[in-house]
Amino acid sequence: MKSLIDYLGCGYYSIRKNKLAGDFLVIKFSGIVEKIIPFFDKNQIIGKKVKDFEDFKQVAFLMKDQTHKTPEGLEKIREIKKGMNRGSY
User: For the chain, how many structural domains are there in total?
Assistant: First the structure.
């Protein structure tokens, strides 16, 4: 996991309470927009999670453009969120 953090230049590793697994977390928005999204654009996700990534990316760019601060933008994000992680594609 340290290699991934070093490679991407963002995020950190958090061990779960059961100590059997952990999570890679990126807290800074700049890390998501400048590192994570470009990485997965270049190294495409294969399978049904590609739709979730496209939705995630769309929300990130709405936020980057400050669209989430408007009622319409916030509603658009809510609609996108409804379709994520549902396995309906």
Answer: 1
CA separation (Å) from 84 to 14, 24, 26, 56? 24, 20, 19, 8
- Which string of b and e fits 13-30 if b means at least 16 CB within 10 Å? eeeeeeeeeeeeeeeeee
- The fraction of the chain above a pLDDT of 90, given in percent, is 88
Whether residue 62 lies inside any domain: the answer is yes
pTM score = 0.83
Range of the domain at 76: 44-89
Contacts of residue 47, defined as CB under 8 A and 6 or more positions apart, other chains included, come to: none
In whole angstroms, what is the distance from residue 40 CA to residue 60 CA? Answer: 14
